[in-house]
Amino acid sequence: MRYDAAYWLQKIHALELPLHVRIMNVCGGHERSITMAGLRGVLPRNIDLIPGPGCPVCVCPEEDIYQAIQLSLSEKIILVAFGDMLRVPVNVPKNEPRSLDAARAAGADIRPVASPTEAVQIAHNNPNVPVVFFAAGFETTTAPVAAMLAAGIPQNLSVLLSGRLTWPAVAMLLEAGKPGFDALIAPGHVATIMGADEWNFVPAQHGLPAAVAGFTPQSLLAAIYSVLRQLLTDRPFLDNCYPELVRPAGNSSARRQLAQVMTVTDANWRGVGVIPASGFGIQPALAVHDARLRFPAYNDPSRKRAGEMPPGCDCARVVLGKIYPDQCRLYGKACTPRAPVGPCMVSDEGACRIWWASGIREAKVA
Protein backbone atom coordinates (compact mmCIF):
# COMPACT_ATOMS: atom_id res chain seq x y z
CA MET A 1 0.00 0.00 0.00
CA ARG A 2 1.33 3.47 -0.89
CA TYR A 3 0.93 6.11 1.82
CA ASP A 4 0.49 9.78 1.07
CA ALA A 5 2.59 12.70 2.31
CA ALA A 6 0.17 13.49 5.15
CA TYR A 7 0.61 9.96 6.53
CA TRP A 8 4.41 10.22 6.63
CA LEU A 9 4.27 13.72 8.08
CA GLN A 10 2.03 12.50 10.90
CA LYS A 11 4.44 9.62 11.58
CA ILE A 12 7.39 12.01 11.72
CA HIS A 13 5.65 14.37 14.15
CA ALA A 14 4.81 11.43 16.42
CA LEU A 15 8.50 10.58 16.91
CA GLU A 16 10.30 11.62 20.08
CA LEU A 17 13.26 13.26 18.40
CA PRO A 18 16.49 14.59 19.88
CA LEU A 19 16.91 18.36 20.13
CA HIS A 20 18.62 18.71 16.77
CA VAL A 21 18.74 16.38 13.74
CA ARG A 22 20.64 17.25 10.56
CA ILE A 23 19.72 15.38 7.38
CA MET A 24 21.68 16.02 4.20
CA ASN A 25 19.88 15.60 0.86
CA VAL A 26 22.53 15.08 -1.81
CA CYS A 27 20.52 15.68 -4.96
CA GLY A 28 19.70 19.07 -6.48
CA GLY A 29 16.40 17.60 -7.65
CA HIS A 30 15.60 16.63 -4.07
CA GLU A 31 16.39 20.14 -2.89
CA ARG A 32 14.06 21.56 -5.52
CA SER A 33 11.23 19.21 -4.46
CA ILE A 34 11.81 19.88 -0.75
CA THR A 35 11.87 23.65 -1.18
CA MET A 36 9.03 23.98 -3.67
CA ALA A 37 6.79 21.69 -1.61
CA GLY A 38 7.58 23.70 1.54
CA LEU A 39 8.67 20.61 3.48
CA ARG A 40 10.97 22.56 5.79
CA GLY A 41 7.99 24.56 6.99
CA VAL A 42 5.90 21.53 7.94
CA LEU A 43 8.55 19.32 9.54
CA PRO A 44 9.39 19.59 13.25
CA ARG A 45 11.56 22.64 13.88
CA ASN A 46 14.45 20.58 15.23
CA ILE A 47 14.98 18.86 11.85
CA ASP A 48 17.45 20.60 9.54
CA LEU A 49 17.41 19.56 5.88
CA ILE A 50 20.82 20.45 4.46
CA PRO A 51 21.41 20.80 0.69
CA GLY A 52 24.46 18.79 -0.37
CA PRO A 53 26.87 18.47 -3.33
CA GLY A 54 24.24 17.46 -5.88
CA CYS A 55 24.50 20.22 -8.51
CA PRO A 56 26.80 19.19 -11.39
CA VAL A 57 26.84 22.70 -12.87
CA CYS A 58 27.95 24.10 -9.49
CA VAL A 59 30.96 21.79 -9.16
CA CYS A 60 32.07 21.81 -12.80
CA PRO A 61 35.67 23.05 -12.52
CA GLU A 62 36.43 26.55 -13.64
CA GLU A 63 39.25 25.37 -15.92
CA ASP A 64 36.84 23.19 -17.93
CA ILE A 65 34.44 26.08 -18.55
CA TYR A 66 37.35 28.37 -19.40
CA GLN A 67 38.68 25.77 -21.83
CA ALA A 68 35.29 25.53 -23.54
CA ILE A 69 35.11 29.34 -23.83
CA GLN A 70 38.61 29.67 -25.30
CA LEU A 71 38.08 26.78 -27.69
CA SER A 72 34.83 28.26 -28.98
CA LEU A 73 36.43 31.69 -29.53
CA SER A 74 39.69 30.52 -31.10
CA GLU A 75 38.73 27.61 -33.35
CA LYS A 76 36.25 27.38 -36.21
CA ILE A 77 34.04 24.91 -34.44
CA ILE A 78 30.49 24.48 -33.21
CA LEU A 79 30.38 24.05 -29.44
CA VAL A 80 27.28 22.50 -27.92
CA ALA A 81 26.50 22.26 -24.21
CA PHE A 82 23.61 21.68 -21.87
CA GLY A 83 21.71 24.93 -21.40
CA ASP A 84 22.61 25.51 -17.73
CA MET A 85 26.31 25.60 -18.57
CA LEU A 86 26.02 28.63 -20.85
CA ARG A 87 25.60 31.15 -18.01
CA VAL A 88 28.15 29.82 -15.50
CA PRO A 89 30.74 32.54 -14.87
CA VAL A 90 34.52 32.13 -14.67
CA ASN A 91 37.20 34.36 -13.20
CA VAL A 92 38.60 36.54 -16.00
CA PRO A 93 39.26 40.26 -16.47
CA LYS A 94 36.13 42.33 -17.10
CA ASN A 95 37.00 42.90 -20.77
CA GLU A 96 36.98 39.14 -21.51
CA PRO A 97 33.95 36.84 -22.00
CA ARG A 98 33.23 35.29 -18.61
CA SER A 99 30.67 32.70 -19.74
CA LEU A 100 29.73 30.67 -22.79
CA ASP A 101 26.80 33.05 -23.28
CA ALA A 102 29.24 35.95 -23.40
CA ALA A 103 31.46 34.04 -25.83
CA ARG A 104 28.43 33.47 -28.05
CA ALA A 105 27.69 37.20 -27.96
CA ALA A 106 31.31 37.76 -29.02
CA GLY A 107 30.78 35.63 -32.13
CA ALA A 108 31.41 32.04 -31.10
CA ASP A 109 29.05 29.39 -32.53
CA ILE A 110 27.66 27.95 -29.29
CA ARG A 111 24.41 26.05 -29.19
CA PRO A 112 22.46 24.73 -26.19
CA VAL A 113 21.26 21.13 -26.34
CA ALA A 114 19.03 19.05 -24.10
CA SER A 115 20.44 15.61 -24.94
CA PRO A 116 23.41 13.86 -26.60
CA THR A 117 21.22 12.95 -29.58
CA GLU A 118 20.97 16.65 -30.42
CA ALA A 119 24.77 16.90 -30.42
CA VAL A 120 24.97 13.96 -32.82
CA GLN A 121 22.36 15.53 -35.10
CA ILE A 122 24.25 18.84 -35.22
CA ALA A 123 27.43 16.96 -36.17
CA HIS A 124 25.56 15.08 -38.93
CA ASN A 125 24.12 18.35 -40.23
CA ASN A 126 27.56 20.03 -40.33
CA PRO A 127 29.92 17.29 -41.58
CA ASN A 128 32.72 19.71 -42.53
CA VAL A 129 32.83 21.53 -39.20
CA PRO A 130 34.32 20.14 -35.96
CA VAL A 131 31.62 19.89 -33.29
CA VAL A 132 32.63 19.81 -29.62
CA PHE A 133 30.11 18.59 -27.05
CA PHE A 134 30.91 20.12 -23.64
CA ALA A 135 29.30 17.43 -21.47
CA ALA A 136 29.16 18.26 -17.76
CA GLY A 137 27.08 16.27 -15.31
CA PHE A 138 26.75 13.44 -12.82
CA GLU A 139 26.06 9.77 -13.56
CA THR A 140 22.55 10.38 -14.87
CA THR A 141 23.92 12.75 -17.54
CA THR A 142 27.15 10.87 -18.22
CA ALA A 143 25.34 7.58 -18.86
CA PRO A 144 23.55 8.92 -22.00
CA VAL A 145 26.88 10.39 -23.18
CA ALA A 146 28.41 6.93 -22.73
CA ALA A 147 25.55 5.38 -24.69
CA MET A 148 26.16 7.91 -27.47
CA LEU A 149 29.86 7.03 -27.66
CA ALA A 150 29.18 3.29 -27.47
CA ALA A 151 26.75 3.53 -30.39
CA GLY A 152 29.32 5.30 -32.56
CA ILE A 153 29.35 8.99 -33.47
CA PRO A 154 30.35 11.10 -36.49
CA GLN A 155 34.08 11.65 -37.01
CA ASN A 156 33.69 15.41 -36.64
CA LEU A 157 32.17 15.12 -33.13
CA SER A 158 34.33 15.15 -30.00
CA VAL A 159 33.47 15.37 -26.32
CA LEU A 160 34.88 17.77 -23.75
CA LEU A 161 33.89 15.64 -20.78
CA SER A 162 33.40 17.00 -17.28
CA GLY A 163 31.53 14.08 -15.72
CA ARG A 164 31.50 13.42 -11.99
CA LEU A 165 30.46 10.60 -9.66
CA THR A 166 28.29 11.63 -6.73
CA TRP A 167 29.19 9.26 -3.92
CA PRO A 168 32.91 10.20 -3.59
CA ALA A 169 31.95 13.75 -2.56
CA VAL A 170 29.79 12.39 0.26
CA ALA A 171 32.58 9.97 1.23
CA MET A 172 34.98 12.92 1.38
CA LEU A 173 32.64 14.79 3.75
CA LEU A 174 32.32 11.73 5.98
CA GLU A 175 36.05 11.07 6.04
CA ALA A 176 37.04 14.68 6.75
CA GLY A 177 36.32 14.43 10.47
CA LYS A 178 33.06 14.89 12.31
CA PRO A 179 30.39 15.11 9.58
CA GLY A 180 28.03 18.06 9.46
CA PHE A 181 24.98 15.79 9.23
CA ASP A 182 23.41 12.88 11.13
CA ALA A 183 21.73 11.06 8.24
CA LEU A 184 21.68 11.01 4.45
CA ILE A 185 19.01 11.08 1.76
CA ALA A 186 20.69 9.49 -1.28
CA PRO A 187 19.86 10.65 -4.83
CA GLY A 188 17.14 8.71 -6.61
CA HIS A 189 18.17 9.40 -10.21
CA VAL A 190 21.80 8.45 -9.58
CA ALA A 191 20.70 5.29 -7.77
CA THR A 192 18.47 4.41 -10.73
CA ILE A 193 21.62 4.22 -12.87
CA MET A 194 24.27 3.05 -10.40
CA GLY A 195 22.14 1.12 -7.89
CA ALA A 196 21.08 1.64 -4.30
CA ASP A 197 23.92 -0.55 -3.03
CA GLU A 198 26.45 2.13 -4.01
CA TRP A 199 25.29 4.09 -0.92
CA ASN A 200 25.65 1.22 1.54
CA PHE A 201 29.02 2.60 2.64
CA VAL A 202 27.23 5.35 4.58
CA PRO A 203 25.75 3.02 7.24
CA ALA A 204 28.30 0.21 6.82
CA GLN A 205 31.47 2.29 7.15
CA HIS A 206 30.28 5.42 8.95
CA GLY A 207 27.32 4.24 11.03
CA LEU A 208 24.93 6.85 9.63
CA PRO A 209 21.34 6.17 8.54
CA ALA A 210 20.69 6.42 4.81
CA ALA A 211 17.70 6.15 2.49
CA VAL A 212 17.28 6.48 -1.26
CA ALA A 213 14.35 8.75 -2.13
CA GLY A 214 12.33 9.69 -5.17
CA PHE A 215 11.16 13.19 -5.94
CA THR A 216 7.59 13.33 -4.65
CA PRO A 217 6.85 14.72 -1.18
CA GLN A 218 5.65 11.29 -0.04
CA SER A 219 8.85 9.54 -1.13
CA LEU A 220 11.03 12.22 0.47
CA LEU A 221 9.00 12.15 3.70
CA ALA A 222 9.13 8.36 3.77
CA ALA A 223 12.92 8.55 3.49
CA ILE A 224 13.09 11.22 6.21
CA TYR A 225 10.93 9.06 8.48
CA SER A 226 13.15 6.04 7.76
CA VAL A 227 16.42 7.76 8.69
CA LEU A 228 14.83 9.29 11.81
CA ARG A 229 13.65 5.85 12.94
CA GLN A 230 17.12 4.48 12.28
CA LEU A 231 18.60 7.22 14.46
CA LEU A 232 16.18 6.61 17.30
CA THR A 233 16.72 2.82 17.29
CA ASP A 234 20.48 3.17 16.69
CA ARG A 235 20.22 0.68 13.81
CA PRO A 236 21.60 2.40 10.70
CA PHE A 237 21.02 0.70 7.37
CA LEU A 238 20.32 1.62 3.75
CA ASP A 239 16.61 1.88 2.98
CA ASN A 240 15.26 2.09 -0.58
CA CYS A 241 12.25 4.40 -0.54
CA TYR A 242 12.19 4.61 -4.35
CA PRO A 243 11.59 0.94 -5.29
CA GLU A 244 9.55 1.91 -8.36
CA LEU A 245 12.76 2.70 -10.25
CA VAL A 246 15.76 1.88 -8.05
CA ARG A 247 17.23 -1.61 -7.88
CA PRO A 248 20.15 -2.76 -5.71
CA ALA A 249 22.56 -2.97 -8.66
CA GLY A 250 21.01 -0.24 -10.79
CA ASN A 251 20.65 -0.28 -14.57
CA SER A 252 22.95 -3.02 -15.91
CA SER A 253 22.90 -1.71 -19.49
CA ALA A 254 23.83 1.84 -18.48
CA ARG A 255 26.59 0.63 -16.15
CA ARG A 256 27.97 -1.63 -18.87
CA GLN A 257 28.15 1.25 -21.35
CA LEU A 258 29.83 3.48 -18.78
CA ALA A 259 32.47 0.81 -18.19
CA GLN A 260 32.89 0.27 -21.93
CA VAL A 261 33.73 3.85 -22.91
CA MET A 262 34.66 5.64 -19.65
CA THR A 263 37.45 5.48 -17.11
CA VAL A 264 37.22 6.65 -13.50
CA THR A 265 39.80 9.30 -12.58
CA ASP A 266 40.70 11.73 -9.83
CA ALA A 267 38.81 14.95 -10.56
CA ASN A 268 38.70 18.58 -9.52
CA TRP A 269 35.45 19.97 -8.08
CA ARG A 270 35.04 23.71 -8.29
CA GLY A 271 35.74 25.35 -4.96
CA VAL A 272 36.32 21.97 -3.32
CA GLY A 273 39.52 20.56 -4.83
CA VAL A 274 40.52 17.19 -6.21
CA ILE A 275 38.45 14.25 -4.99
CA PRO A 276 39.98 10.81 -5.71
CA ALA A 277 38.14 8.55 -8.17
CA SER A 278 35.31 11.05 -8.59
CA GLY A 279 35.49 11.83 -12.32
CA PHE A 280 34.82 10.19 -15.65
CA GLY A 281 37.33 10.19 -18.49
CA ILE A 282 37.13 8.84 -22.05
CA GLN A 283 38.77 5.48 -22.76
CA PRO A 284 42.02 5.66 -24.82
CA ALA A 285 40.38 3.61 -27.57
CA LEU A 286 38.11 6.60 -28.23
CA ALA A 287 40.88 9.20 -28.12
CA VAL A 288 39.87 10.54 -31.53
CA HIS A 289 36.64 11.76 -29.92
CA ASP A 290 38.30 13.24 -26.81
CA ALA A 291 38.30 17.03 -27.25
CA ARG A 292 41.11 17.43 -24.74
CA LEU A 293 43.37 15.37 -27.00
CA ARG A 294 41.97 16.78 -30.22
CA PHE A 295 42.54 20.39 -29.09
CA PRO A 296 45.36 20.11 -26.52
CA ALA A 297 46.43 23.77 -26.75
CA TYR A 298 43.38 24.89 -24.75
CA ASN A 299 44.02 22.69 -21.72
CA ASP A 300 45.53 25.21 -19.29
CA PRO A 301 46.88 23.45 -16.15
CA SER A 302 47.61 26.81 -14.52
CA ARG A 303 43.87 27.32 -14.00
CA LYS A 304 43.50 24.07 -12.07
CA ARG A 305 43.32 25.19 -8.48
CA ALA A 306 40.94 24.76 -5.58
CA GLY A 307 38.83 27.70 -4.41
CA GLU A 308 37.87 28.91 -7.87
CA MET A 309 34.69 30.68 -6.85
CA PRO A 310 34.54 34.43 -7.60
CA PRO A 311 35.57 36.82 -4.79
CA GLY A 312 32.95 36.92 -2.04
CA CYS A 313 31.04 33.91 -3.41
CA ASP A 314 30.26 31.19 -0.86
CA CYS A 315 29.00 28.60 -3.37
CA ALA A 316 31.59 26.05 -2.26
CA ARG A 317 30.35 26.20 1.34
CA VAL A 318 26.75 25.88 0.12
CA VAL A 319 27.67 22.84 -2.01
CA LEU A 320 29.40 21.18 0.95
CA GLY A 321 26.39 21.77 3.21
CA LYS A 322 28.30 24.07 5.56
CA ILE A 323 25.90 27.03 5.14
CA TYR A 324 22.44 27.59 3.74
CA PRO A 325 22.12 29.60 0.50
CA ASP A 326 20.77 32.71 2.22
CA GLN A 327 23.85 32.75 4.46
CA CYS A 328 26.09 33.54 1.48
CA ARG A 329 27.44 37.09 1.65
CA LEU A 330 26.31 37.85 -1.91
CA TYR A 331 22.90 36.13 -1.91
CA GLY A 332 20.18 38.48 -3.14
CA LYS A 333 22.64 41.39 -3.23
CA ALA A 334 25.35 41.15 -5.86
CA CYS A 335 24.20 37.65 -6.85
CA THR A 336 20.74 37.02 -8.37
CA PRO A 337 19.53 34.79 -11.24
CA ARG A 338 19.59 37.80 -13.58
CA ALA A 339 23.21 38.55 -12.69
CA PRO A 340 24.72 35.42 -11.10
CA VAL A 341 28.13 35.68 -9.48
CA GLY A 342 28.47 32.03 -8.55
CA PRO A 343 27.27 28.81 -10.24
CA CYS A 344 24.78 27.95 -7.46
CA MET A 345 22.59 30.83 -8.66
CA VAL A 346 22.68 29.65 -12.30
CA SER A 347 21.47 26.07 -12.41
CA ASP A 348 17.96 24.83 -11.69
CA GLU A 349 19.71 22.29 -9.43
CA GLY A 350 21.73 24.95 -7.61
CA ALA A 351 20.52 25.50 -4.05
CA CYS A 352 20.77 29.30 -4.31
CA ARG A 353 18.68 29.40 -7.49
CA ILE A 354 16.13 27.02 -5.94
CA TRP A 355 15.78 29.11 -2.79
CA TRP A 356 15.46 32.30 -4.81
CA ALA A 357 12.76 30.74 -7.00
CA SER A 358 10.87 29.69 -3.87
CA GLY A 359 10.64 33.32 -2.76
CA ILE A 360 13.57 33.61 -0.35
CA ARG A 361 15.08 36.91 -1.50
CA GLU A 362 16.93 38.25 1.55
CA ALA A 363 20.38 37.24 2.75
CA LYS A 364 20.56 36.00 6.32
CA VAL A 365 24.24 36.48 7.01
CA ALA A 366 25.38 35.82 10.56
Description:
With 366 residues, the protein is an alpha/beta fold. It has three domains: 5-55 and 173-241, Rossmann fold, CATH 3.40.50.11750; 57-166 and 250-294, HypD, alpha/beta domain 2 (Rossmann fold); 325-357, no CATH class. Helix content is 36%, strand content 17%. It is built from 16 helices and eleven strands. The protein has a six-stranded mixed beta sheet, with helices on both faces. A five-stranded parallel beta sheet has the order 2-1-7-8-9. Helix 1 (5-13) packs parallel to helix 12 (217-233), helix 2 (28-36) packs parallel to helix 16 (351-357) and helix 8 packs across helix 13 (252-261). The longest helix has 17 residues, at 217-233. The radius of gyration is 21 Å and the shape is globular. It starts with a helix and ends in a 9-residue tail after the last helix. The model has no long low-confidence stretch (mean pLDDT 94).
Strand order of the largest sheet: 4-3-5-6-11-10
How many strand segments?
Answer: 11
How many domains?
A: 3
Low-confidence stretches: none
Q: Classify the helix fraction into a percent range.
A: 25-40%
Compact description:
It is built from 16 helices and 11 strands. It has 366 residues and is an alpha/beta fold.
Task: Give the topology, please.
Blueprint: H1 5-13, E1 21-25, H2 28-36, H3 39-42, E2 47-51, H4 56-59, H5 62-74, E3 78-82, H6 100-105, E4 110-113, H7 116-125, E5 131-137, H8 139-151, E6 157-164, H9 167-175, E7 183-186, H10 188-194, H11 201-206, E8 210-213, H12 217-233, E9 238-241, H13 252-261, E10 262-269, E11 273-282, H14 291-294, H15 315-319, H16 351-357
Parallel strand pairs: 1-2, 1-7, 3-4, 3-5, 5-6, 7-8, 8-9
Antiparallel strand pairs: 6-11, 10-11
